[in-house]
Amino acid sequence: MTFIVTEACIRCKYTDCVSVCPVDCFHEGPNFLVIDPDVCIDCAVCVPECPVGAIVADTDLPPGQEGFAAMNALYAARWPVISQAQDPLPDAEQWASVTHKREHFVEAA
Length: 109
Fold this sequence. Notes:
alpha+beta; 4 strands; Alpha-Beta Plaits; two-stranded antiparallel sheet; two-stranded antiparallel ribbon
């Protein structure tokens, strides 16, 4: 089992989860974070830290979020590791409750 960052993170990119991760499994893209499934130790300490509920177990992916498991693995191999909390995106609060944000995902700057 591993944990997956889902659509709720897009355009928010809160990093509270990063600061508690004991193994630095988070990777940072322009407007989204991902978890490296090969590094994640399934400790779940990141789950309650996410203010938008974007992190779930790969066995508990909500309907419509299944593709995010592959996205996390793919972009973890491409994006740099993030190991310290940073400020969220400037308009994160506006996007925090928005659903169906996949079209706003940015692969590269």
